[in-house]
Specification:
Layout lengths: L1 E2 L5 H7 L4 H7 L1 E5 L1 H10 L2 E6 L9 E4 L1 H7 L8 E6 L9 E6 L4 H13 L4 E5 L7 H7 L7 E4 L2 H7 L4 E11 L9 E6 L7 H4 L4 E4 L10 H16 L1
Parallel strand pairs: 1-4, 3-4, 6-7, 6-10, 7-8, 9-10, 9-11
Antiparallel strand pairs: 2-5, 3-5
Helix pairs in contact: 5-6, 5-9
Length: about 240
């Protein structure tokens, strides 16, 4: 069977998943392209696959024409496959945690998620942060989305619940990262692109850290967070 009409009920319902309210309602999200399809298949959370490629087979595969694929896609040039995936329930936190306070830029979030996976920060706490299932975030994570544990929570409430974990904020007046070391379990808190980490959170941390710089006052949060996670993982290795 091949769906050839963009007015098809299933296609119209699936397209709604580009909107956060429907992703939250149905517990599903969309990924595009062969790489993300394969990553989703590997972890086993594929719900349905829409594709123009008849080499892709399976009970959950539905073939569509180019016009329908374009309707389902958020990209100008669809890669041939759009996959509906099941959101995964949050698990207990790991020993290295990244806590994000009001991060709003999808590109920054995508960068942080890829770096978090690369450097062992496999639990991500999201406090009023851009949706991890946003199309732009998903594209920039390159599959990291399927290997991380996401917990949606107020950072202050999370810190109170898991009060045996060491929490380190990021602030201009903090301890230089080169002089800082710790041991798991611990969490690194990164803040909003403009405002930084909320002052109420910084007052509750074990210590705050910073990246010394020569000719600029601040770094993009995606870059800064990646440097901090790399430096800490290097010291743990």
């Amino acid at each position: 069977m091949e769906i050839t009409s963009v007015q098809n009920k299933l296609i119209k319902e699936t397209t709604k998943l580009h909107q956060k309210k429907y992703r939250d309602q149905f517990g599903h999200f969309l990924v595009e392209g062969y790489h993300l399809y394969e990553e989703a298949r590997t972890v086993g959370n594929v719900v349905q696959v829409f594709t123009t490629d008849h080499a892709i087979v399976g009970e959950d595969v539905i073939y569509v024409n180019e016009a329908v694929l374009q309707k389902l896609s958020d990209a100008k040039n669809p890669q041939g496959v759009v996959t509906v995936c099941q959101k995964v329930d949050a698990q207990e936190p790991s020993d290295q945690i990244l806590l994000l306070d009001h991060i709003q830029d999808p590109g920054n979030l995508g960068t942080l998620l890829r770096s978090a996976l690369a450097f062992g920060f496999t639990t991500i706490v999201l406090d009023n942060t851009v949706d991890v299932y946003n199309d732009k975030v998903l594209r920039s994570t390159q599959g990291a989305i399927f290997k991380l544990n996401f917990i949606h929570s107020s950072i202050l409430e999370f810190m109170e619940k898991y009060n045996w974990i060491l929490y380190y904020g990021t602030a201009m007046t903090g301890v230089p990262i080169q002089a800082f070391s710790t041991m798991p379990p611990f969490g690194i808190i990164l803040g909003n692109e403009g405002a930084g980490v909320n002052e109420h959170i910084l007052r509750k941390t074990t210590k705050n850290i910073t990246i010394p710089m020569i000719q600029t006052e601040s770094l993009n949060v995606g870059v800064a967070g990646s440097i901090i996670m790399y430096e800490l993982q290097k010291k743990l290795s």
